[in-house]
Amino acid sequence: MARLVAAMSGGVDSAVAAARAVEAGHDVTGVHLALSRNPRSYRSGARGCCSIEDAGDARRAADVLGIPFYVWDMSTEFADEVVDDFVAEYAAGRTPNPCLRCNEKIKFAAVLDRALALGFDGVVTGHYALLETGASGDVELHRAQDAGKDQSYVLGVLTQEQLRHSHFPLGGSVKTEVRAEAARRDLQVATKPDSHDICFVADGDNAGWLAERLGPRPGTIVDEDGTVLREHDGAYAYTIGQRRGLRLGVPADDGKPRFVLDIEPVSGTVTVGPRERLLVDVLEADRPLWCGPAPDGPLECTVQLRAHGAEHRAVVEVDGGLVRVRLHDPAEGIAPGQAVVVYVGTRVVGSATITATSRVEVGVGDGR
User: Where does the record place the catalytic residues (predicted)?
Assistant: First the structure.
């Protein structure tokens, strides 16, 4: 039996994960993370997580399970490590994933550190992923059984030490089973909708939220030949691969839609062009985080480049803190700031943050 902290978000997954840990005989304490000094500034109702309603739902679930329940104030750590990082990344022309950052710095760093300091053995969460013990004795992170709910991508930031203290009871289940189990256990969250989007952007308007914090930073939207198409109020409102909301007015010569190809944050220049120019086959990345030993030599593998995105066959090479990924088949619309997560089969090898991409030259083979 282990003493575990159950991170209870107020949703059905974390409630059932806590219930399964209790049923398995563990000594479980429920904890809800207060991530904002003003919870009403975060999502409310079913649109997100981390709201006042979610805290109440988590407390009621803990009462049903008969386990102690506490609220841990992580608002300072969340603001410093997740919110401020999100703003800084967009200001630098990159496209971050705050959920990975939250898992890395809050749920499996700050929370786990506090849990271990208080004498707990680990943390249990409602993430959909599997943990297995490998031949070497290391704990391996694998994709969940339910491919549609698999969250191994956002857990690719976890180290071996963190994995050894993690418990993911839902990894072998599908979502319909989890909801049915919650209903059988009389958990009121059984039919609660899943959370979506970014929890700290209250109305879902990322561009508007960033504008309030970064202010106007005028620039231009240009074609690849440098022709100015219109002015804008901030390059942070755009992401590579974006098509909607460009409001260019003048159609392209070929009449086809144009997409954001590049963002230059210093000048505020946003470059647009045809869809085929979004294709890339080489990625460079830094800040690698390995779930176990780092790859030794070229690694034939697959990589995932966005949450719930497709897998791409690739070769990964590591040189200290730098990672180079060569895709066998080009990918579209990959932006600096995104995470590349490396897999061998279903096993997560680790992750890194994309810093640069190289485009396939249209009409010149595969660009190599």
Answer: 102 (nucleophile), 199 (cysteine persulfide intermediate)
In one-letter notation, the amino acid at residue 5 is V
Q: How far is CA 190 from CA 10, 37, 53, 118, 207, in A?
A: 11, 28, 15, 31, 33
Q: At what angle do helices 12-23 and 52-65 cross, to 10 degrees?
A: 20
Q: How far apart are CA 355 and CA 336, in angstroms?
A: 5
Q: Which residues pair with 106 in a beta bridge?
A: none
* Domains delineated in the chain: 3-191 (3.40.50.620), 216-273 (2.30.30.280), 277-359 (2.40.30.10)
Residue 126 annotated as part of some ligand binding site: yes
Catalytic residue among 49, 50, 102, 301: 102
Q: Is 50 a catalytic residue?
A: no
User: Binding site annotation covers 319?
Assistant: no
Q: Which pair of tokens denotes residue 104?
A: 């890395």
Distance from C-alpha of 170 to C-alpha of 183, rounded to nearest angstrom? 16
Residue 281: C-alpha distances to residues 277, 310, 355 (Å): 12, 15, 14
Give burial (CB, 10 Å; 0-12/13-18/19+) of 157. Answer: buried
Neighbours of 10 (CB within 10 A): 23
Q: Is 56 annotated as a binding residue?
A: no
Say whether 102 is catalytic: yes
273 is in an annotated binding site: no
Q: Is 155 annotated for ligand binding?
A: no
**pLDDT tens, N- to C-terminus, the chain (368 residues):** 899 999 999 999 999 999 999 999 999 999 999 987 665 545 444 344 566 788 999 999 999 999 999 999 999 999 999 999 999 999 999 999 998 999 899 988 889 999 999 999 999 999 999 999 999 999 999 999 999 999 999 999 999 999 999 999 999 999 999 999 999 999 999 999 887 667 888 777 888 999 999 999 999 999 999 999 999 999 999 999 999 989 988 778 788 899 999 999 999 999 999 999 999 999 999 999 999 999 999 999 999 999 888 999 999 999 989 999 999 999 998 999 999 999 999 999 999 999 999 976 655 444 43
Pairing of strands 269-273, 259-264: antiparallel
CB 40 within 8 A of CB 15: no
**Could you tell me if 5 and 43 are in contact, meaning their C-beta atoms sit under 8 angstroms apart?**
no
